[in-house]
Amino acid sequence: MANIQKLIERMRYWCLDVSLGYDQTNRWDIRPGGEADCSSLVIHCLQEAGFDTGAASYTGDMSAALTARGWVRLPNNGSPQAGDILLNDADHVAVYLGGGQLAQASYDENHRASGGASGDQTGHETNVSPYYNFPWNCYLRYTGSQDNNDTNTDTEGEITMAIAYGSDQFKGLKFWDGVHKPVGIGHPDELNAVSKAFKAATGKDLPLITFDGAWIVRFESLAGRSEDNQNTTIINAVKTALGK
């Protein structure tokens, strides 16, 4: 049965975990080392996640096919929800992952639509990036029934786990998206860009907190673990630091 969290997981898998390149002429060769374009990737991931995509085949017919199968077409208000399909009917489509991030197939290693080598030659042909407005003509949001067993679809919890933080143990700030390892913020413009993306995606300000003493050791020990090893302990630690 259809599952939004599975859609998010599959988009993240194809855009981060394997080498999947971009090519419009070989767009259905979706495999590690293969190729896709923006719409074939989204359609493929929808099918992997149990969604009926009907006759959807490219950006131009996705809206009609999906809105006949449990999806609704919503205006682009700058505040997508995790699992929303971000659609420009003529040119591009991506999936919003939550936490200010989207996943997409962009272009080949030569910034062209086709002709490049198979696989992701640059690390960016398929990618996860901060949310931006393409511009999107609409958000497609699923309102049908789902199989929610063993999944966490609390998008509010996912969003609030993105933070910028500092400590008396190191200079500057770091950013943590609630999933991956924290990264250093090397320039004020980077913090500004992340904050703007978070605000555009959620309508909220990016939390900025300061850890004192041993708290930073505990936090970074937990935040530095792989995705597979994270659990509610890390969420509780952050909520404690935020006073929630």
TrEMBL record:
Transmembrane region(s): none
Residue ranges occupied by any NlpC/P60 domain in the UniProt entry: 1-143
Keywords linked to the UniProt accession: Hydrolase, Protease, Thiol protease
An example Gene Ontology molecular-function term: cysteine-type peptidase activity
InterPro entries membership: ELLD, NLP_P60_dom, Papain-like_cys_pep_sf
Keyword hit for Secreted: no
Top-rank lineage group of the source organism: Bacteria
Gene Ontology biological process terms in this record: proteolysis
Pfam family, one: ELLD
Membership in a protein family: Belongs to the peptidase C40 family.
Protein name: Bacteriophage peptidoglycan hydrolase
Species of origin: Bifidobacterium psychraerophilum
